[in-house]
Every structure is written in C-alpha cells, then in structure tokens.
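User: We ran a pulldown and think these components assemble together. Before we commit to crystallization trials, I'd like a predicted model of the whole complex to look at. Sequences follow.
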Amino acid sequence: MFVLSGYDYLLVFLLVSALVPLIALGLSAVFRPKIVSAFRKSTYESGIEPRGDSWIQFNIRYYMFALVFVIFDIETVFLYPWAVAFDKVGLLAFIEALIFIAILVIGLVYAWRKGALEWT
Amino acid sequence: MNQGIDLQRSFVELLTGAGLPQEVARAFWLPLPMVVILAVVTVAVLLAIWGERKWAADMQQRIGPNIVGMAGFLQGVVDAIKLIVKEDIIPRKADPWLFTIGPILVLIPAFFAYLVVPFGQNLIISDLTIGVFFLVALGSVAPIGALMAGYSSNNKYALLGGLRAAAQSISYEIPLALSVLSVVIMTGSLSTIAVVEAQNTYGMLSWNVFKPIVGQVGFVVFLISALAETERAPFDLPEAESELVQGHHTEYSGMKFALFYLAEYANLVLGSLMATILFLGGWGFFVPVETLAGWLGVDLLNPVFQLFAAFLGIVITVLKSTIFVFLAILARWTLPRVRIDQLLDLGWKFLLPIGLVNLLLTAAFRLAFPGIFGGV
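Assistant: Here's a predicted model for the assembly, 496 residues in total across the polymer chains.
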C-alpha cells in the first residue's frame, strides 16, 4: 500500500493525535456552562479599560533574526544528508562541507558586525 | 544483533490463530500502540505536573497539593475535570477561528512526535527512517500555533508573547539541530532505533554523552536549546508573568488553556526522552544485553529473558528521562529568568558558533578515529 514502510502508522497517528484536542474541546463544549456576558468578553488589560487595538503596525525587532534564521535553517537541512552519508563519502565531502559552512560563517560574521544580532 | 521480542507478530499470529484474516488482524494491531503511547504520555504529564508542584512547594517551604489522592497525586486529574467544565471565553475583539486553532496546533505536534520515540527494540509506534529529522521538524510547528494564539487574541500582552515565542523558538532551533547533527554523524542514520543501537554496542561506554569532547559539548548545547524550545524558566520569556501576564495564553480559559498546559508538559517529557535517546543510550543498560544474559546464565533468545530485557528497557528509558524532567524542574525553580537580549545573544552568538564548531569537530574526529566515533 505504501511505498515507504512505516508511513501508514504516521498517517493514522496524525489522525489520532489530532483527535485528542478535538475530543477534549468537544467534551468541554458539552459540559461547560454558556453564560453570555459582555464584560467577560472584553480584552484583558490588567484591569483597566482596554485602549486601542493590538492589530497595528509596529516595529517587530525579531525581523532580522527571522531573516538570519531562514539562512541557517536551510543550511541545517542541507547538512542532514551529508551527516547521514558521512561514513561513505569521507574526506572529500568533509572538505566540501567545510567550504559550505565557511561561506555561511562569513554571512553570520557580516550580520553580527552589521548589528543585526543586537537587541537595541 | 539481538532482535528483541516482536509484539506485533505475536499479536497478529494470536488473532489469525483465532480465525481472523491477516489484514483484519493487522488493522486491529494498528491503533493499539498509539493508544498505549497516548495513555502513557498523559500519565507521564500528570506525574510531571505533580512532581513539579510538589518539589516547587518543598523548595518554597510549602506543602503543595496534599488533599486529592495520596500526597495530592490525583490533583492533576481534578484540575483537568475543572478545566473541562469551565466556561470558554472568546474575547469580543478576537478572531474566533485562529483563537481556537492556535492551541490545537500547539498540542498536535507535541503528541505526534511520540511516533518515533522508542522504549525498546520493537517498542516504537513506527521506526521511520527519518525519525530524528522528524522530531526536529515537528519542533518548529508549535511556534506557529503560539504566534496564531498571540495574534488572534487581539491583546497586547498576547501579541508580544506570541512574537517572543516565535523568536525564541527559531533562535534555538539551529543550535538544537546542529547538536543533533553531530549525533547523526556518529550514527550514520536518522532512525531513532539505529541511534540507540549504535550507542549500545559496548554498553555504557559507547553512549554519545561519553564520546570524548564532542559528546559533552553537544550534550550541553542540546540541553540548553531543548530547555529553551520548551519555553520553560529560565527561558520562559513568552509567558513572563511579571511583564506579559501570561504571554500568548493570557486570554485563554477552560479547555483551550488546558491544551496549552498539556502541550507544555508533553513537550517537556518529549525533550527528556529525546535527550535520553540521542545522548544517554535510550533503553540501553550499563552493559550490553548480551553480557547481561551471560551474567544471568540464560540464552539470549530465551523468551522469558527477552520479556525481562524489554521490561528493563522501558524502566531504564523512563528512569533516564526522569532525570532530565527533574533537571528542568530544578532549573525552573532555582534560576532567574534571562532578559530577552541575553536570550538572543546566548542563542546566536554563543550556542550557534559552538554548535557549528562541534559539528565540524565531530566530522573530523569521525574521519580520524572511526572506531571511537561510531562504527567502522
């Protein structure tokens, strides 16, 4: 049925683990009281009247971190096959990975020197 | 290599012996380990919550839960029932759909990841050939749920908490992946079973944590990043209660809050199990199972011994991961919370370079001394 062995379990387990929160929420929907109160549905702001909206434009400081993250996350994805096949490919692949990582380290140093990794 | 007991085959043979066709028997088997694992995880979560509350109480010279069950043991069950019958509040300004999907999306990967967690040679739901990669990949799904919850609440605290959760998670994912990669180099496989088996060829001495230099460095990098990924103190910035009330679950109540809570502890237990599998030799005893059979003077293929070895494997896995759960609890109640700039600095300027160097060092060691650093 499946080309790759073990993946039928993966599909079934995905359904099973998705059922857990759905059953829990369904159970709660049956038993919980339904009280309609306008005050309870107001936004929590430590007890004072909520001021303004939070869906506004503002400077998200993690933006640069997210950009650097994308680079390094792709790097780790490329390194997985290298690591798995490492004992078969040997010295040549090691030198290639060295060059690959060196290029990325230059990128990291650049971002670092430019202050992208500073929280200011 | 010792094959261990094959529960699936015995079960299917039992049912086909009773007159059922092969496919039906297999279909009966399919959900069985999953239900067992889910039950085990739920119990483990309740135990972790109870242990944390009791120990925290001890540290602060309180008594902690002591009414329900023996020494307050059943307090978690009662709390769960309370949360089930609690009113569900969706703020007027919130986005109801994202608000509901958020906690679900946080919980699903926390349970789904147990697919590849082995408790013994065959005591695993499915031995995917990419098991380790699967675990790391699932770790990056939960922050989407946290971000969703934070944004949809339309609450300033929640939004900041959700953003912090996402930033923290992406900052520590790379060091985590790098330390896992060095284990993969030493194993030459991504299967969790293969990772554990490679560590148990010579008993305790071949555990990854005892590999000279790279083992210990990788282990420490892994522990810090895993602790940061679970978003617990001292890295609990997303829900720093003194600044952000409760972070992205500020607006949540009732069952949806319970889902977040359950996911947090399921992730804690999962992280402990991952540390056990990747660095402490999983179900492996201090000596190889062959030596153990020799000591007891029984044949390796003796069914009673196989059953005993499987049972011992489960106990050892649980004991090893309990160490990490208690380490996390100890860290939470003794260390002060780090600041956001310290958190980002630690991830990007400290753990990331160390992780990279450690990875290359592992590869170099593997080339130079293939005997010590995994296989021939």
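Chain B touches chain A through 82 residues (CB under 8 Å). That may be worth checking against your pulldown data before setting up trials.

User: Thanks, that helps.
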